[in-house]
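Worked example 4.2. Below are the chains of a multi-component assembly; read each line carefully before continuing.
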Amino acid sequence: MQERLPPLLISVLCIGIAVLYVPIVVLIAYSFNASALVSVWGGFSTSWYAQLLHNDQILDAAWLSLKIGVVVSTGSVILGTLAAISLVRFGLFRGRLLLTGMVNAPLVMPEIITGITQLLLFVSMLHLFGWPHRGFTTIVIAHIAFCTAYATITVQSRLRSADRSLEEAAMDLGAGPVRAFVDTTLPGIAPALASSWLLSFTLSLDDLVISSFVSGPGASTLPMVIFSRVKLGVSPDVNALASLIICLVGACVLLAGYLMRRADLQRLADAQMAGQNT
Amino acid sequence: MVSGSVTPAEAESRESPGRNWLKRHGRRLIILPPMLFLLVFFLIPFGFALKISLADTAVRVPPFTDILSITQDWHIHAALNLGNFKYLFTDEVYGLSYFYSIKTAFFSTLICLALGYPMAYAIARTSKSTQSVLLLIIILPFWTSFLLRVYALEGIIRETGLLNSALLWLGIIDHPLQIMRTSLAVYLGIIYSYLPFMVLPLFATLEKLDRSLLEAAADLGSPPWRTFVDVTLPLSMPGVIAGSMLVFIPAIGEFVIPTLLGGPNNLMIGRVLWDEFFGNRDWPVASAVAIVFLVLLVGPIALYQHYSTKQMES
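Applying the procedure described above to all two chains together yields the following structure tokens:
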């Protein structure tokens, strides 16, 4: 597959990558700007980061977003794993097409439509049953709905390539299907579970549009607070906050990628070992 | 994972009624939770949107009338109101914003394709280890905060931003360019935000391309550009369509980019929806806007599903 690439291709690739990264690098650089004027470099300073620690509005929103993120990613991994098992292992069952559609649709559905329809549901439910009140609960439910889609796809692809022979061996030896799955296949797909947890967490932490629709008074997530401030223009303390979030989320994504990759290498090594032993 | 020989007692306990029940209904226990959750919280809400789009605005909580109500003498009273949909056709703001959204999304998708195709092609031609690094570089921004990346772009294209400063310093321009609050800013925002969505599916098809076909074409005397047009391009069509739809569909409904980077003239449908909802608090009209939007999207979404499943199967 390796060959010399035409210089034109390489330059387009470099330009593309530069387009993706220059704004982020500039943003992080300016978060260390001592000057309050965002366009003038006034020397290195971490004062904007220190100021964040005294901003109660931002701290409250960050805490709320983290709580939502943890609940959402745990819920999405559970539902996503169940959906992936259903789609990969159960062959044709009634409602398979429906489940496939509902798992894939959130990936392409514009957030603004999902947000509006879910809000209308929650409002009608509150009207009929007196539950749920808009805020933490509704944001968690709405986020789980779209994060489950991402979790299902991640777990599904891993489950599809998982070796079933161990599980079958365990069942031949008398383990029940659940026990056999938990003891043999689950450790194999654990990296996929971990990475879909991390990815759901970053998606939830990041969501502005759906949260804005389904949230109620008093429940402002971090992106909502940032959005209301960013609409007013660029400001140095938002730069600091944005840098922190980008680094946190970037770390989550790198960790997720690392887990998946290590699991792949491990599997490859195991397969080679098995090959040598026979 | 320790399982020795199975004693008769153990075998018997496995056939207990509880186990039998689990055997029969176990699958349902696994299928039902995600199915019900997505049904109630993802699919059924569309029904509510449709219902409310047929209602009338009312000054109460929630701010719309009931379509079905039971009168005092136990008759069911149905009041369907198509006025909201009619209203969409009479007030030209809606038509214009649908048109502007589709136009913007269409041209942004073309530019993403023009930039993303060579990128994906170049990545697919590198060695496996370089590939995984490059892919990570492309994926990383796709997962990091969307809102914050749009904000970061504002820092570049603002009047006193990096781009203008650099161009002024180089002497290419004498006055800072006005990019913010124009259509150009919206285009730049969409291309910048959605480029990874284009590169990834393109890479997936280009990587699988059978190289022997290209060699065969070259052996038979086809010049490289001919080989590209006759072999590579047609074979990568599933990736082209999947990537284009992944950019086009969310770009039409984009809210953050036109709001933060665009000006008052860059009315995209996402913004109109948002204003109708939070500004005018006209929920029935907002629902009607959403339903019409959804109908427009059915074609592209079906196209995407078709090609992405095709790609997955191969």
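Take a moment to check your reading of the output against the notes. Residues 1-6, 8-13 of chain B have pLDDT under 50 and may be disordered. The first strand of chain B starts at residue 68 and ends at 70.
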